[in-house]
Amino acid sequence: MRAFFLGVLPATAFVLSLSGCVLGPEHRPPELAGMPAAFKHEAGWRALGATPVATGGDWWASYGDDTLNALLADLERDNPGLAQAEARLRQAQAALRATRAGFAPEIGASASSTRSGSDAGAGNSHDFSLSVSWLPDLWGRVRREAEAGQAEQQASAADLAALRLSLQASLAQQYIRLRVLDRQHELLVGTEAAYARSLTLTTNQYDAGMAARADVVQAESQLESVRAQILELVDQRARAEHAVAVLAGQPPSVFAVTVEERLPALPAVPAGLPAELLARRPDLVVAERRVAAANARIGVAQSAWLPDLSLGLSGGYRSEAFRDWFEAPNRVWALGPSLAAVLFDGGARSAALERARATHDEAAAAWREAVLTALRETEDALARLRALETRVAQQGRVVELAAENERLVTNRYRAGLVSFLEVAVAQNATLTARRAELDIVRDRLEASVELVAALGGGWQAPAN
């Protein structure tokens, strides 16, 4: 027995000294050649407002809308899509714990009681044993698997953050559309009242012989057209409200957003460089962590070429009677290493290694594509905000001119100098200009949400 230990222990110590080896390339975060130092359209949005977008997870606070804040809190708590992503994250965490269990030895116990016999006689056998087995991580296979599992777990966390940001942005944009629809409804209701007064005026002038019947028909047609637009807005608002309800995790039938005159504030988004963008966008963290996981699996595939060594120790008692179970002569034990290696596999290991390398190359290309997409989305949002900032001032001037023209034409009509057709044209031009102005307000708010989402919403990747 002593000679056995003297022979086994040096070999075991040598094997353990090899367990520091780790096969496979070390992961280095991928880099994109030609990364710009600044955004092309960055100068167009620095002065959009006085309040910067909040850093951290509550970016929506910069819009200064309590209802929006409450709805996003409902989304965080009740949205089923987020619940699914959180469950996937827990799956990844459990898988990582299962992989790390490979570092520890496995301990087992067994007990049995049998009676067997032959023509020569019968006897009892009572066995109890305790075993310990350990597969040393000689070539770093378990470490690479744990590295891949950790990267996947981090990717799942970033996936959850990316989905949360996407849902938050969708809810904010739907809410903005709903609020603008309320303003447009208010505009149309006021226009309906004005058109009703015009119809009364035209009818009175017709009764006095100062206007033709065609003017009365024109005024009635204009009034009914506005009423039809109001009904259309009611339908659009209902659908926008239903979309907000589902995103907030609520049944549309029991959900309602009260009408408010005030629109969310337009925040100013602080300048950010592309290098900062890469750390703030969770979808880019997902892509980079997929590269890290694929890189670790190259080492796993390489370790398949080398033999596995397992160390085992077992001991117990065997006796024909329970009363003699724990007596010294009935003890049994076994100790020793075992080495196993695949000598021929028909090229399966080569194919697995080639596949792992190709998967890594695919993940790296996907990361580069994700970075370019992120830069494009940011530039698109910046360019849109810049264009809309110019358009809102121009459209304000259009509204002023249309209102002035409507006032002048109405006065001429009252004096009997023009037909009601000119009044109708002027009134419709004013209504169209005011609705276009509200559309630009909506587009600016939506574009600001797009920019916040493109910059990652203030989300920060956890330390690796």
UniProtKB/TrEMBL annotation:
Membrane topology per record: Lipid-anchor
Keyword Lipoprotein: yes
SUPFAM superfamilies the record matches: Outer membrane efflux proteins (OEP) (SSF56954)
GO function term, MF aspect, one: efflux transmembrane transporter activity
GO cellular component: plasma membrane
Coiled-coil ranges (or none): 216-243
Location of the protein in the cell: Cell membrane
Keywords, in A-Z order: Coiled coil, Lipoprotein, Membrane, Palmitate, Transmembrane, Transmembrane beta strand
Transmembrane segments: none
Entry annotated with the keyword Lipoprotein: yes
Similarity field: Belongs to the outer membrane factor (OMF) (TC 1.B.17) family.
NCBIfam families on file: outer_NodT
Listed name of the protein: Efflux transporter outer membrane subunit
Species of origin: Pseudothauera nasutitermitis
